[in-house]
Batch of 4 targets.
Target 1
Amino acid sequence: MPKPTQPSPRETVHTVTADSLVTVDFSPRFEGRSRSRPRRRPPGPYRRLFALPGARAFTAGNLLARLPMGMFSVSAVVMIAGSRGSYALAGAVTATGLAATGLAGPWIARLVDRYGQARVAVPATVTAVLGSLALLLCVRYGAPDWTLFAAYAATATTPNLGGMSRARWAHLLRDDPGALHTANSFEQAADELCFMLGPVLASFLTGTFFPEAGTLVGAVLLLTGALLFAAQRATEPPSRTGTAGARTPLRIGPLLVCFVATGAVFGSMEVVTIAYADAQGHRSAAGAVLALQAAGSCAAGLLYGALRPAGPAERRLPVCLLSMAALMSLPLLAARAVDSLWALAPALLVAGMATAPTMVTAMTLVQDRTPEGRLNEGMSLVVTALLTGIACGSALGGWAADHVSPTAAFVTPAAAAVAALAVHTASRIASPNSRRAH
């Protein structure tokens, strides 16, 4: 009896049953279709964000230009104190630059809104870079002290590149609130990363090469990044030259007060932590401990951006402020209970996790309340409020560390966080119409 043969790959077997005729196709084409293909996972929110045309290009230039923001102050202090032998002079020069930035920032941003980012940011950046180079030369060749103040004040023309980046996202994602939330979270994490890596890079450059190296490298990075950012014209928001005369009021007054209190949290925590580490005999470790706070904020910001926002920003902000007020008490509890810098470190890491979600939500609310044609101006006012709060917080934290104790001084950032919550709560009670509107 001949053995049954298997059907060839191109043959078809017909099986007749009582009910129907079933055709089984053994061709390779059928076998290919019969396999179940694995489903592709949908791209994550950050991958979708940077899939937008031009997003990666303007982000790369912006990050390169923002990194020096954490370098210039440290570099200037090291450069001036090393040459003139006076930390008081170095601190006064940097404080003058900080005050000048707070005054000039909103005016530069207003010009950006009116004439466009590229037309204003490039000459403003060139002026700031020339001011940094002038400071370097004045220190190098022993110019009079007043020239240091004049040169460093010229750096106040540095445009708010973080605000301009947020304005681009707001323009690109104006019809997608969820993606805009992710973009704002990324920008806040980028701020934390730049201010965490900037001082480290500046310290490395000034200590490894020569005192002016940090300022020189920072100026090159700022100019290069700003030029790359400005070259991406396709993603630039349109200027509002035609509507410049319509001075639509900015409805962010109470928010600015809230940002002042939040800035006081940052400024006081930095000074108090340094004072506490000095009292513990570990002043050199203060920078690493503070970096943990920034790292916690950066990680929380990225995670917060990956989550879908629950409800409008107006409802989320009180929750974020309450969380920040609660977590800012952890450093105080750790310092009092254990009295060790190594116990303070994890407390700062956890406390930092509340700041990025708070800043992201507050920035979203600023975007909601600011007219589209004045967004850069609104963002710059926020930066001015933060700088004001940082200066006030540094002064209060330093006073508490000197006149009370470094341990008890941790009350200062906790009190500032409670003040931010109280200000926002009071503004909501005073303005029920805005609460219903959101």
Target 2
Amino acid sequence: MIEQPKPQQSLSKQLLQIPVLVAALGYLVDMYDLFLFSVVRVPSLKAIGVPDDRLLPDGIMLLNWQMAGMLLGGIFWGILGDKRGRLSVLFGSILIYSLANIANGFVDSLPMYAALRFVAGVGLAGELGAGVTLVTEVLPKQIRGYGTTIVATMGVLGAIMAYFVADLFAWRISYFVGGGLGLMLLVLRMNVFESKIFEVVKERQVKRGDLMMLFNNRERFLKYIQCILVGLPIWFVVGILVTFSPEFGQAMGLTEPVVAGKAVMLTFTGQVFGDIASGLLSQYFKSRKKVIGSFIALSLIFVLIYLLAPMKDLSVFYLVCVFLGVANGYWALFVTIAAELFGTNLRATVATTVPNFVRGAVIPLTSLFVYGKGQVGTLNSALGVGLLTATLAFIALYFMEETFKKDMNYVETD
């Protein structure tokens, strides 16, 4: 057995360790950039000459390039995190992200924009998984949920911050701000220490970061797929319903046009409260599965309200966005359970690839949505995709192992 880090004297000292704070700030910067594009999509595309009738398809194209970068980056950073250490990811990912984000402020063509969103996606892919992996290994099992809740909540605040920065400054300056924040965080990370659990495994020469280990064992493979499916409803809401909220508002016949940036800000304001609530509830009930199941059900309810309720007033639409955000607030638990389900030699690989595969699932989900839009209309197409993601998530969660009391001091074997 691998020796666990010794608990510290007080809850506050355990939760306010430098690795927890740095992981939290890293996810803030991660989410800032990720949702800045949702906020500045329309003005930035118009600024580089994209006509109004191309704003939706070109916006989807750019989002898909970003998600493709996150898919590939998730694999790269995940393997690196298990082979070289969690800190290697925390340094490399933030540097690539920061430089790409600054470059985004200079784009003057659609191909350049797409290329830089791809590179930014590669950089962003390492933040959450490496941070959550480090936090779960540094903190005692009794309070892991509190630590990852802090990380996720700071991340959601980053998305809200993206709205206010984009509201105060031009879209190019907003990208510069994100890149500058990343470079500042890079300096702060000089004081972070590696997980003791990982260091012991590294010294023992255990096989680490072997992606094929996820596929050569049926039980591990099924656990991996379950983790991905449980997160799909979150990114259906974020990647489709919220990102393209102006188009949904138009399809609903709202009296006023929807401002995408405001919809993003309100949704993630709700998610702040959802992440806090889900984290605290999982600690109270000592169960990840029960809380995640409740939030998936709540998310489905508000998806149905969003798409089926006869809304005409813009303020009601924005209120529903807030509740969608609250129901989406199980992102921290979803990534935590992924980290807890696998041994130290595969933990970073799983915790980094799973959320990025969920984000990358926006590519087939948006493709399915666009195809259905031409067949049954915007609202009905979204409804079909939403019901599909919720059904898959419920099935996956039913068969998933409860991990609340699981120790982190173990490894996966061939």
Target 3
Amino acid sequence: MPHMHPLIRHFRSLPTVDLLIGAAVIALGILEAFTVATSYGATENPELWWVGQAIVTGVLVWYRRRAPIAVFILMILAQYAWHRQGHEQCPVWQLAALLIVFHTMGAHLPLKPGGAWAVTGILVFDSGAVDHRFLPFDEVIFLTVIFGSAYVTGLALRRYLVRVHRMAERAARMEMERERRATEAVAAERTRIARELHDVVAHSVSMMVMQAGALRRTLGVADETNPGQVAVLSGIERSGREAVEELRIMLGALRMPQEEALPQPGLDMVSNLISTVGTSGLRVSLAVEGDPVRLPPGLDLSAYRIVQEALTNAVKYAGESEVRIRVAYLHDSLEVEVADNGQGAGPALSTGNGLIGMRERAELFGGSLEAGPLPQGGFRVRATLPIPRGVPMSEATS
């Protein structure tokens, strides 16, 4: 885009309506200067000095919203200068400009200051201070009515705009309230569906597990020479118990915010998470202990979110320190730990929603969470999450 001249950029910042009205005042003033100047007391047509005054008046109209009081005063002074030239009558373009600035006082100033300035202006004109002559009563009434009407129309416009603004704000609040209620209704419906699914499906799957277990024990006693059938039934039992556990986790997950119902990352994305905070001044290291296993999706997501929340707090409060992330796959549990050696994020975690959210995620899977300052300085968040016997990642991907 080419560089714009500052003067052009300034004019483009003015309201288009004001620019058009000011231009109309200038055009009308020039037209009267070349056609009817003698009818207002001029010696000849054209009266060229009128052109300059018309331009000044039109420019004042351009700035009537930015500085209404200053424009109002300057317009009255311009009228005073006009009458000092020996003209008794006010041409159409000057009268129109005066009515516009009286209207502006009502439309763009509060009632008390705007009304005070409007009354002052009317008294200045009615007293003959501008004309330097005693005005007849009918002319006083005329000036009072037209200038007062112009101010009142501006005042009515201001009240209308204020009412429209309030109605828009009210509509926005009602829309936000409607969206909030709709979100709450969706969340309540999701929770109801989750409970129904859990009650119905979990009962049926539990019965299947019990029957498979009873049949496995019966076959194990009756036919010890066919271990294949026993192994199949054991797999059915194990899969059924995992399904019941996933249903319980689903009930908790459906109570979470709706955006977390979408496909979410897991612990395999922690390295990407570290790269996003690499420019914050933290030195982040990741250590994985044990053999990674395939985790249930809900457990994998919650472990990732715990690491993410703890790392976010470290970025905010630990300063330029070192952060250590440890993910340990133990025999029957998963440990995730985020520790820093800086000043730590203790106050923010202990009083904010971060620790509460991480603890809820851990407890959802029957786990626990510990968070607190370290003796040598810094802060540590450690979550322990029990997991079923998982499948090693090497086997899961083979």
Target 4
Amino acid sequence: MRRGRQILAAIILLAVMCACRETTAFATEPDAAEQTEELSEEQKAEQAAYEMKVDSNDWKNWPQGPGTYGEAAIVMEVGTGAILYAKNIDSHQYPASITKVLTALVAMENGQLEDPVTFSHDSVAFLKPGDSSVGLKEGNQISLEQALHATLLASANEAAYAVGESVGINAGHDYNWFMEQMNIRCRELGGENSNFANTNGLHDENHYTCARDMALIGRELFKHPDFFRIVQTLNYAIPASETVEEHIFQQKHKMLIPENSNYYPYAIGGKTGFTSDALSTLITMADNGGMQLVCVVLRTHGVHIYPDTAGLFEYAFNNFGKVPVADYESSKDVGEILEDGSCNYVMLPQSVKFEDLDMELVPDGGISSEATLQYTYEGNPVGSARCTLSDSYKDEHSAKVTAAKKEKKPKDDGQKKGKTKKMAVACASVVLAILITIFISVIMRRSRIRKRRRRR
């Protein structure tokens, strides 16, 4: 009996020891250094991009935004231009095919959708194997609307070139003029870190932009309903005609395709991009019924472009809201907030109060009694409003102007008196010099006469 118990105890002890050994083996993991060594180069690049600093997270009381696998990202509110999320937003990056949204903007501003677009030799000869194309050929002629569908949906590089060339020619210029307009338009919108060398985004060392500049371009596109009608199209066909064969193509932006797992219900437009130098790029516009946003992500590693964009939209929609200026502005210089089509609100998170903002009052020129109120937080614009100037401001301003005139007048009179006195002294000096000269001449003449008389 005792022996049986000893044997049973030995068996139990052995089982426990084996279990502990298995548990210990399962729980043991390599240290961080070993893990890093096991990561592929691409995984290391993804991790490094994700760990890059999110600049807006350093703004006082600003909601902490998510990391992204892109090296640059921005979320901008359309009405105010307020930047809600910022990561490396001014660094130069290659845009790839999201260039085509600027091509579309300049084309719509300088042409009509029914204008002809003709495919020249130059518009197709540059294509290389693997370049995105729908197969349009030299001599084909389609409308600008059809060409923009090919440019924005199928990302057809030959269509983007033909759009720039034809719009330029139709305006009495050429392709180079259209390229100049792209760069001029970007600067007019506030872009300071871009240079566009082509209309399609194929790699060029001198073709670059930044997240902020692309967001400004996307914001401007909200003024063009035709852009959104085109980019929301899921399937499109250019019908066969005497000058072109039929071409059929589909939407590529997965956040706009309801059947796709990356579909985002608030997405209303955008453009995809990719080259081996630019990596994945994406510009997306969203509207949840209360807020319109533009999100740009550049140089995204891996397959994170759509999840990153969706995460940034959710961050913005969940953390920010519109604060009406009329409800909070109490400056004695402001009469009333005008409803003249301007946004008249600021974009703020709940953690930042209206009184935390800096406000600059910019009066209209001349004798106008209206002004613009510009609001910033931590140096970043968050909104603006139009207003009338209060009576106290106008009285105070009028008094300052009058006082300035009074101070200026004596000074001017004094200057005039000083100038007059100097002129009088100068004139007197000239007269005296003339008199002295005459006096000396007379004396010398008399002296010569006396000498002659003596000789006689």
